[in-house]
Design a protein that fits this description.
single chain, Structural Genomics Hypothetical 15.5 Kd Protein In mrcA-pckA Intergenic Region, Chain A, Pseudouridine synthase, 3 domains, 9-stranded mixed β-sheet
């Protein structure tokens, strides 16, 4: 018989009326919503002893929800000898500086050349299994064309503690971006819920429908004519959050193919967004650790052109 991890939740009065997949993805930060939906589809989640058959099930007070997470399948994604820019490593975690253009984990059409393929080669079997066979060790993600710092968990205990910090919004994540248009103010906050765009499944959007609260704090670093160099700090971590929020306030990122103009004066394909700073409490020692990395060359070239007025 397969080993499995069992989670249990008794629905409170405040939780009544919530969709089961939404509630569980918020309650268990280490389990992604897509992974929970797969568990529902495969019959691994029960409500009051009966198998849950719908991710849209609305929960009632005092219901007993049980989640059985089976032992991960053997990973069929191949380890690949791809160079990694490692900024820190110990027995619990790895901090890597992901290059622009690299996909974080395998998905349809991208089963090789990803960060996961590279990390598997570097770490061997020393990766957490919480996020399943496709995302070993992946605690959080950044988009393909976003460069910068990422945490990789090397065991399940470290993964749970890092994911808990993400859920509590206690991890420091600061990004650098070049956006269109100028700001009247020097700093501000976008507090607007994000969910899938009902008109385009490839996009996210600010919406009140099937969304989660999303908060981005930004400040102007330099005004550069028709563009602005900014820092954006994540309070929450939704898919495409900075890209969606900046487009929402009419400051789309330069080069963004989904949320910005179809063409840009720099010939950049992919948003100029860099995860520059990452700070968190070490999962074993509790000590606060902080790492920084500078934007990649292509980003710096555009910034230099803007500063010189080219």
């Amino acid at each position: 018989m397969e080993k499995e991890t069992v989670y249990q939740v008794i629905i409170s009065e405040q939780q009544e009326g919530r969709r089961i997949d939404h509630l569980l993805s918020e309650s268990f930060a280490e389990l992604s919503r897509s992974f929970l939906q797969k568990l529902i589809k495969d019959g691994f989640i029960t409500v009051d002893g009966k198998v849950c058959t719908s991710k849209k099930l609305l929960l009632k007070k005092q219901q007993n929800v049980e989640i059985r997470v089976p032992e991960p399948e053997i990973l069929h994604v191949e380890a690949e000898d791809i160079p990694l820019d490692i900024r820190y490593e110990d027995d619990d975690l790895l901090i890597v500086n992901k290059p622009r253009g690299m996909v974080v984990h395998p998905a349809a059409g991208n089963y090789s050349g990803t960060l996961v393929n590279a990390v598997m080669h570097h770490c061997g079997d020393s990766l957490s299994s919480i996020n399943g066979i496709i995302r070993p060790g992946i605690v959080h993600r950044i988009d393909k064309d976003t460069s910068g710092l990422l945490m990789i968990a090397k065991n399940d205990a470290a993964h749970r503690l890092l994911a808990q910090q993400l859920a509590e919004h206690s991890i420091t994540r600061a990004y650098r971006a070049i956006v269109y248009n100028n700001f009247k103010e020097d700093e501000g906050t976008v507090d607007a819920p994000i969910g899938r765009d009902p008109k385009n499944r490839l996009r996210q959007a600010v919406t009140q429908t099937n969304s989660k609260r999303a908060v981005t704090h930004y400040r102007v670093l330099e005004r550069l004519g028709a563009f602005t160099y900014i820092e954006a700090r994540l309070e929450t971590g939704r898919t495409h959050q900075i890209r969606v929020h900046m487009a929402h306030i009419r400051h789309p990122l330069v080069g963004d193919p989904l949320y910005g103009p179809s063409k840009n004066p720099f010939g950049i394909n992919g948003q100029l967004l860099h995860a520059r700073l990452l700070g968190f409490q070490h999962p074993a020692t509790g000590a606060y650790m902080e790492f920084e990395s500078e934007p990649p060359e292509e980003f710096r070239q555009v910034l230099d052109k803007l500063k010189r007025g080219v």
